[in-house]
Design goal:
Largest sheet: 6 strands, parallel
CATH superfamily of the largest domain: Glycogen Phosphorylase B
CATH class of the largest domain: Alpha Beta
Number of strands: 13
Strand order of the largest sheet: 10-9-8-11-12-13
Number of domains: 2
Oligomer: single chain
CATH architecture of the largest domain: 3-Layer(aba) Sandwich
Distance between the termini: 21 Å
Mean pLDDT: 93
Low-confidence stretches: none
Number of helices: 13
Radius of gyration: 21 Å
Strand content: 15-25%
Shape: globular
């Protein structure tokens, strides 16, 4: 995989593997090969050794490759030496950490078991980003047969459909909902006044996450409300962020938007205690660890319908909304703003209860074990 702990700027894919290791380490031995840089960083991690097997922050065996070692020859050497039962690839489009292992496998180990996690990269919204380049890559991969005889780890039934839409109905897929980190969830009461609300956005800043659309909708909310909107996450697309900044500067006086930068995973729970709701009107999300973290913190979520989380309003855990229905989204933003203390406390409790069902779902763990069967 391209990034792992102590990295955090790549978001969900890191959490997916860290949580998989945490939940399954007593059943399987994990050895992780990754970069010695965090996303968008030029300096290697100062807390781990590069180009040698070492213990990661969570105790997993990790090989942090320097840029000089991220080549076909080195990847081939690692695969030859490790003789792993399974090679798990945490991306579709990574040159070093997906393409090279598949080339090694085809040339030297054609029967080696390979599992690929698309991580939302095959969704319609994700494929709209650099579409021509991705179409050419996928066409070439299919023509060369590098994706033959792999198992696809779909994190939802929607993602399974995405895989089969591209690779055919006979593609070997297994649905296993991403695992969350098991821990106690402690209720936390926030002060909530009618007409005052604090919204949080926790995600990478890119076209896919639709921050621009969120800002445009916040600008149209009722001026009777006082809205604070804080943005957390690394800037993935500078040009896109420049457009967002222009929107932030032109917001009406009743909406205050602030960029807070990227935060480390261990700070997310405490950060969310300062907010009433989180917003992610994404174009595509195969799981959304920030969504689960928000619910675990008792923050109801305002989502698009392009995530696995459905019927949230009935659960009093938030809303899942069609992006085309802007009037409904505005209605929800205003409803959240106008919510009183008693109602919010009830929603917050129910949201956290729903999060417990997700985090302690034994079926998800069993699905992962079946993934490696």
């Amino acid at each position: 995989m391209d990034w792992y702990l102590p990295g955090y700027k790549a978001g969900g894919p890191i959490r997916s593997i860290a949580n998989m290791y945490s939940q399954l380490k007593n059943d399987y031995t994990f050895r992780i090969v990754t970069s010695n840089l965090d996303l968008y960083e030029a300096k290697p991690y100062s807390t781990v050794a590069s180009d040698q097997w070492t213990k990661g922050p969570d105790g997993c065996d990790v090989l942090y490759l320097s840029t000089a070692k991220q080549n076909y020859k080195e990847i081939s050497k690692i695969i030859h030496e490790e003789r792993a039962d399974y090679i798990y690839l945490n991306s579709v489009f990574s040159k070093v950490f997906t393409l090279f292992p598949l080339l090694v496998r085809k040339r030297h180990f054609p029967v080696r078991k390979v599992i690929i996690a698309p991580r939302g990269m095959l969704g319609k919204g994700a494929l709209q980003i650099k579409p021509i380049k991705k179409k050419i890559f996928l066409f070439w991969m299919k023509m060369t047969g590098l994706f033959n005889s792999v198992r696809w780890h779909a994190s939802s039934t929607e993602e399974e459909k995405e895989v089969k839409n591209i690779f055919g109905k006979n593609a070997n897929t297994k649905v296993a909902l991403n695992l969350s980190l098991g821990r106690a969830l402690i209720p936390f009461q926030r002060k909530k006044e009618i007409g005052k609300v604090k919204f949080a956005f926790l995600s990478r800043i890119s076209f896919k996450k639709n921050l621009q659309g969120t800002l445009s909708l916040l600008a149209r909310t009722s001026p009777q409300n006082q809205i604070q909107f804080d943005i957390y996450g690394p800037i993935e697309d500078q040009e896109y962020w420049n457009s967002c900044e222009k929107l932030m500067a032109s917001l009406p006086s009743h909406v205050k938007a602030n960029y807070k930068g990227a935060i480390q995973n261990e700070m997310v729970a405490d950060t969310l205690k300062n907010y009433h709701f989180s917003i992610l009107l994404t174009f595509n999300e195969n799981f959304g660890h920030s969504i689960v973290e928000s619910m675990a913190a008792g923050c109801p979520v305002i989502l698009s319908d392009q995530t696995p989380w459905k019927n949230l309003e009935a659960k009093k855990a938030g809303w899942d909304l069609k992006l085309q229905d802007e009037n409904k989204i505005l209605e929800v933003l205003n409803t959240a703003s106008r919510m009183d203390q008693e109602t919010f406390d009830y929603w917050s409790r129910e949201t956290q209860e729903f999060a417990k069902q997700i985090i302690f779902d034994a079926q998800s763990i069993q699905q992962h074990k079946e993934l490696f069967s």
